[in-house]
Every structure is written in C-alpha cells, then in structure tokens.
C-alpha cells in the first residue's frame, strides 16, 4: 500500500480572506468548491496538478458562518482557539495536507495505529458540485487534532470522481513538498526525511516561485 499527495490545505478566518490571499500570494483566484454539511465548513479550490504531482490541488477552507454547529470537532484543527487566533492575526496559511490512499483506508489506519499514530476512523463525506455529488471517505479524529502539528497528513479515499479532474488549469503547479517527520516510515511511497516535524510546499506561480511553510 502506498500514499500520494492529494491536496494542500490553506486555513482562513473567512473564505473571502482566503480568496484574497490566493490572488495576492499566487497571482490567481480559486474556483469551484462548496459547502461541507458534515463539518459546517466551506471551501474554494485551485488546480496544482503537474508531472510530479498529478491530480493535485489546493483547498482554501474556512468555518461556514451560515451553517449550524456540526456537533463534533471540525477537521484540520479549525476549532482550535490558538489556530483561529493565528489565522485572524497573521492571515491565511498552510495548515495541513491530505494524502490519497491507493488501497484500503482502514488498512492504512490500522498500520498507522500499530506504529503509534492514531488518525481516527474512516468517515463518509460529500458535497454538492455543479456536476453532482462528490463523495469520499476521510480519516477523522474525534478531537480534530492535526498529528505532528499538521506535518502528518489526513488520509482520504476518493470515490469514482476526483475534484482535480474538473478543475481548470490554474497556471500554478506544485514543484516540491519538503517534509520531515520523526517517523518517516508512516508515509510509504512519499519522500520524507527523519527529524523534527516540518513541512513546506513550493509552488510555481504567475508571480514566481512561492514557498508556503506550515502554520502550526
């Protein structure tokens, strides 16, 4: 079983701030996206696909102020007061990433658990798009906590449709994902160095090369 980088997650205090950040930082505006009824969040997307990272995209996500409380902790640590404060003060930033499971999501969760990494349980999720309902399964902890400060990814297993397939070419592409973990063996198929948890994404954009460090 191996993992592939699926998407980068940009947290924002509001979706409008996230969209403005994307245009100012990457030189383009995001497109698509929608509402997550399960988590009371909403998002916008940007295609990052290229030869090194096919079927890859950037997700800008924020708490949906018009949605009722979800009744559980939101994903990506979005309910963390410390993270909320940083997003309000410092603006949007890279808060997490998601890895796609090529195989059985439950089996990968068991393998992580045996190595001491408790990533939660597989949960079915969906959102509506212009082309219909998008479905996936994602590993969620009950407390919504990001493992290793966000350097260890959430795990996802897509249904028949992948969101990157419907996104237009954005002119932005992911060039490198620089990653360190105390347990790099948790990421079969992905290159990670051993050391203190750390993550940085480097993107080629209309504004030049942009580095996005992890906001912990």
TrEMBL record:
InterPro entries: Glyas_Bleomycin-R_OHBP_Dase, Glyoxalase-like_dom. Residues 5-184 form the Glyoxalase-like domain. It comes from the Bacteria. Pfam families: Glyoxalase_3. This is VOC family protein. Transmembrane segments: none annotated. SUPFAM superfamilies: Glyoxalase/Bleomycin resistance protein/Dihydroxybiphenyl dioxygenase.
